[in-house]
Automatic annotation (TrEMBL), chains A, B:
DNA-binding region: 17-36
Keyword terms, alphabetized: DNA-binding, Transcription, Transcription regulation
Entry-linked Pfam families: TetR_C_1 (PF02909), TetR_N (PF00440)
One GO term of the biological process aspect: negative regulation of DNA-templated transcription
Source organism (scientific name): Frankia canadensis
Domain of life: Bacteria
Annotated ranges, domain HTH tetR-type: 1-54
Lineage: Bacteria, Bacillati, Actinomycetota, Actinomycetes, Frankiales
Chain segments carrying region Disordered: 148-176
Stated name of the protein: Transcriptional regulator, tetR family
Gene3D superfamilies, alphabetized: Homeodomain-like (1.10.10.60), Tetracycline Repressor, domain 2 (1.10.357.10)
Length: 199, 199
DNA sequence: ACCTGAACACCGTTCAAGT
DNA sequence: ACCTGAACACCGTTCAAGT
């Protein structure tokens, strides 16, 4: 799996193949079928390991809102560390499986902040889907750079919108306020969703 | 393109190939290279057509909030109409290109409701990324069904969470409140983000 | 138990050749 | 202008054979 992740990170998930992994490990491409049922299972395992990354050490301070922020911030960072792999999280149902610890932590903090279960369920799901949408979009732009120039390339802002001004006047008005800093923009969305968390 | 969409919808985007399209059109698989630079360009065109679907006829009533809801509700429905194609929206930068009309409409309604440009930019992006995250997650579950049973299959709820109760007590508390109705759940998230839209 | 290598049924794309 | 068909360099996966 470590080798597979290395191939994915350096060549991109698109160039990852059983044959490429075999070449990297200097073994026959079919040897992996002893250890994984196939390419899909291997990729699923990689994705799950990324989602689980750091989920066991999520903070629990006296500020539940900050702890929730940190939870999703960390999920974002883990996914962005492997931009070409990130879109494959959609292969797994969200919120279950590898997400257990993370989900439980987020819901626990919402509960701790005095939110009732109905609101907590709603807020939790909105946070998760927002994070996935934002992060996968950003990852795609990053991935484009990786696939062109190899590992370590940099991507531009996720939404540097420059619409044709004459045809879309309203959009042109807000365009300057779409932040260049993707992380700040991401956190602003989290805060919007968490805006009236009790206390 | 119509033929390509038909192949994608019936066989699934995973089974879509130049050779499959050639067989469907009863022509040589390489004939398409006269009309599209390659498979990627063809898929991008399909994705753009889905994103643009209905964007020209978005409502503009005296209730801006309802109009925004309808905008994203419609984007969700268009994407879910082609569940195996939906994840490929990530191939295109969000909010630009095929999104122009849709983005401009949403921002115009936020503006019309009295929101200042900074907040409008933040709310708009949060709505878009939330919608993408929610919809692509739902589409994947639907796609699984399509690929197993062919077109027209039904998927389950996007998040019927049944966590191991002993290990994740907080999550178990909210699980019953995660709605089975995916559309209702989706709209609840939109309303959460739009919660204090002026007027 | 684990690895090898041939084989099968596929891919996207290019290019010379046809009409 | 458009289509064909051979060809190239790839895929994932299976299976009999080895150690």
């Amino acid at each position: 799996m470590a080798a597979a992740m290395q191939v994915v990170d350096t060549q991109g998930a698109g160039a990852f193949s059983m044959r490429a992994l075999g070449a990297f490990l200097e073994c026959d491409p079919t040897a992996m079928y002893r250890h994984f049922t196939g390419k899909n299972a291997l990729l699923d395992a990689l994705v799950d390991s990324v989602v689980r990354e750091g989920a066991a050490t999520l903070p629990e301070t006296d500020d539940p809102r900050a702890d929730i922020r940190e939870n999703f911030r960390q999920l974002r960072r883990s996914l962005l560390a492997h931009p070409t792999l990130a879109p494959l999280v959609l292969r797994r149902p969200p919120g279950v499986g590898a997400y257990w610890e993370r989900s439980d932590h987020a819901v626990a903090q919402l509960h701790r902040a005095g939110m009732d279960p109905v609101d907590a369920a709603n807020v939790y799901q909105t946070l998760l889907f927002y994070t996935l949408g934002h992060t996968l979009s950003e990852a795609r732009q990053l991935a484009r750079a990786v696939e062109r120039e190899g590992a370590g390339a940099e991507g531009g802002p996720v939404a540097a919108v420059r619409p044709p001004e004459d045809r879309h006047p309203d959009l042109s008005d807000v365009a300057p306020h779409l932040r260049d800093d993707n992380e700040a923009q991401f956190l602003a969305g989290l805060d919007l969703i968490l805006r009236d968390l009790p206390r």
